[in-house]
Specification:
- This protein is α/β, with parallel strands linked by helices and 303 residues long.
- It has ten helices and 15 strands.
- Helix 1 packs parallel to helix 8.
- It is globular.
């Protein structure tokens, strides 16, 4: 199997309550490493994203640990990478972003669309434009290649200080149109539209858009997969997995998306893909750093 992963890279800076800081690579890199960990040595993962000059060599070095990742789609640009600064206070992380990169152009993506699945994770919210999404889906349509779109930060705006705020989207239907599967968490789904505040109302609006599966993640409470039919949706409730402790929840949604696409490509069943992704996200919450990728690498999609 071959997979293409599209989204913005970011340097994550974590500031702890004692004032200490730790800089790591984040953004779309979490999704790439998760998919590479799940995939086998015979598979190929093609990430497409830009990196600021400072981080370009380091990112390539980090991905060298995954032999099934082809880095031909990674490019550098002048200046700094996108940056997300997380501050820990009273046990809760809050983030502020700094935008330093432009949307990824279709010309960068096009050479990597002869694949079995495409994952687009809107890490910054301006990773690609809607016109680029149109070009992607038209390019993969002849082979019916599945596209999984994680809305993530697509419906966030920027305050002058770099903090983000939820804003309803007037063009959300166009983002969903003809996408095989769409992913949101509870907060993203609740704040997506001006008109629809209840999830069942939103599901009814998604049905005519030809979305095949709509995933709503509920953190430790599991997830719901709405499998869309001709005029209605079948609801698959996926229970949360009890954990002894939640070590780090940042990136769990990214790992859910990677596991969902991987599971669907392997099983061709949206409910089973959702259950597999839920297990992967639960493992993510209980581990830190590269340990989470080692943990999900042991998962079997057929279990």
């Amino acid at each position: 199997m071959k997979y293409t992963v599209i989204g913005h890279f970011a340097a994550d800076i974590r500031q702890y309550e004692d004032g200490s800081e730790h800089r790591t690579y984040g953004g779309i890199l979490t999704t790439v490493c998760a998919l590479a960990s799940l995939a086998g040595p015979q598979d190929a993962v093609y990430p497409v994203f830009g990196v600021g000059e400072r981080d370009y060599y380091g990112v390539k070095t980090a991905l060298a640990a995954y032999p099934n990742v082809d880095i031909a789609g990674i490019y550098s640009y002048p200046g700094e990478s996108n940056e997300v600064r997380y501050t820990l206070k009273d046990g809760m992380w809050t983030g502020r972003g700094k935008r330093n990169s432009d949307p990824i152009p279709f010309q960068r993506i096009e050479p990597f669309l002869n694949v079995n699945g495409v994952l687009i994770n809107m890490m910054s919210g301006f990773d690609i434009t809607i016109d680029t999404l149109d070009e992607i889906r038209m390019a993969v349509r002849p082979k019916a290649t599945p596209i999984h779109l994680d809305f993530h930060n697509l419906s966030l705006g920027f305050n002058p200080d770099g903090s983000r705020f939820r804003r309803p989207m007037s063009d959300w239907r166009r983002w969903c149109f003809m996408i095989n599967s769409v992913q949101m968490n509870d907060e993203e789904a609740a704040g997506l539209t001006f008109e629809y505040t209840e999830i069942d109302q939103l599901v009814r609006q998604i049905v005519p858009l030809m979305v095949q599966a709509f995933c709503v993640t509920h953190a430790e409470r599991g997830a719901t997969v709405y499998e869309v039919g001709h005029k209605s949706a079948t609801v698959h409730e996926i229970a949360g997995i009890p954990a002894a402790t939640a070590s780090d929840t940042i990136g769990c949604g990214d790992i859910f998306g990677a596991a969902f696409l991987f599971g669907y490509c392997a099983l061709k069943n949206y409910a089973d893909a959702g259950a597999f992704a839920n297990r992967a996200a639960s493992l993510c919450a209980q581990t830190n750093g590269d340990e989470r990728f080692s943990a999900i690498a042991q998962m079997k999609v057929s279990e």
